[in-house]
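Summary: Need help interpreting a holo structure output

Steps to reproduce:
1. Submit the protein chain below together with the SMILES for NAP.
2. Request a joint structure prediction with the ligand placed.
3. Inspect the structure token block that comes back.

Expected: a single structure record containing both the chain and the bound molecule.
Actual: see attached output.

Input attached:
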Amino acid sequence: MKRIVILGSTGSIGQNTLSVIREEPQKFQVKGLSARSNIDLLEKQIEEFHPETVVITDKEAGERFLSRSLPLIKSGVKVILGKEGLLELVRKPEVDLVIIALVGIVGLLPTLEAIYAKKTIALATKEVIVSAGTIVTEAARKNDVEILPVDSEHNSIFQALRGHRSAEIKRIILTASGGPLEKIKGDLSDITPSVALRHPVWKMGKKISIDSATLMNKGLEVIEAHHLFGVEPSFIEVVIHQEAIIHSLVEFKDGFISAILAFPDMRLPLHYILHYPERVESSLPKLDFSKIERLNFRKPDFDRFPCLKYAYDALREEGTMPAVLNRANEVAVNAFLKEKIKFGKIPEIIKRTTDLHQVVKDPSLEDILTADRWAKEKAESFVVKGSGLNILKNFQMFIPDP
Ligand SMILES: NC(=O)c1ccc[n+]([C@@H]2O[C@H](COP(=O)([O-])OP(=O)(O)OC[C@H]3O[C@@H](n4cnc5c(N)ncnc54)[C@H](OP(=O)(O)O)[C@@H]3O)[C@@H](O)[C@H]2O)c1
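--- attached output ---
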């Protein structure tokens, strides 16, 4: 039996992981779960999967859980409140696999803690590798820990590379479905959250859905691929492939290309990871080639989707720049979802923040965390200034002409 901890079990990846586990309860034992504030769903997950420990990071939600879920607590589940609980959860001695499915930089310290505790990691939270790629991959190497990528693109590259060495790779081609805005003509700056959240292929959490709309998601994945597979930025390409059937391509030095194809369903990479290194039968949806008329590919439009370019720029700058890019993006996306800024402000806030950053080369963990805090503050100041301008604009609309 594999013993599993899931950080972010109430999210899209967390729920997909549990739905794979649900099919084979004899193979997996859920040891720990975590949520930020969705205690309704967490309660249901505790009743079904009987974890020993759960962490609720939002203390207010945690207090509510404690006051209303007495029967569950009496049944023996240990409840820890606050972010520090995530570190305790991943250190649990009797755990084989830690699934990191939190959203954002909050995943960094628990990921490192799990690596120091020598747990195999299944990493969905790309922001961790984007912000501190060298530190995380070095820690994994030193502690002899395997990082299994969950992102469908990196998972497929990981699969394509089985039996190969990174030194044999010539080029990585990351496919992108293009997100919900690819086909919308004209100016995108006033797109609303509800339109930007409507992804044509994947059903995901809100943050990654907006990242897909700006193509920042693909930019973050370029940085992630660089760290996971040791390929230089100029040999990582992005191609729009709307059908999302080829999950990525690896070109080897002799010119052969490996592609991994599968039905676009996140339960497939999760099934692969949960059973790794075995490959076993799954009842998940399969591709039917009689229904696939054609597969399309085209270049991304870097002018309409500048976030992709900013991610390449940050990767080339290296040091603390990717961490700053990541945090500025987190702040901007959050502000957009709360309707504090317009869609067009997301790339603007990222650019203004990264332009002001003094890069620290070969950063320590402390340098990364300092850069992250700096970027949060700076980007938030642009959100405030930006929303002020919008209010002024709206106000002016109602001033009658002299
Ligand atoms: N969704 C996908 O198909 C997909 C595919 C590839 C990669 N990824 C990556 O996987 C990660 C998770 O994505 P998702 O779509 O599953 O996100 P999501 O649906 O928003 O779920 C995030 C999970 O993390 C918890 N969480 C959020 N903020 C937190 C915080 N500040 N502290 C502690 N816990 C927090 C949430 O708890 P509550 O529910 O209580 O708020 C939830 O359990 C992201 O990095 C994303 O880029 C996702």
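--- end attachment ---

Reviewer comment: Confidence is low (pLDDT under 50) at residues 388-402. DSSP finds 16 helices and eleven strands in the chain.
Status: needs-info
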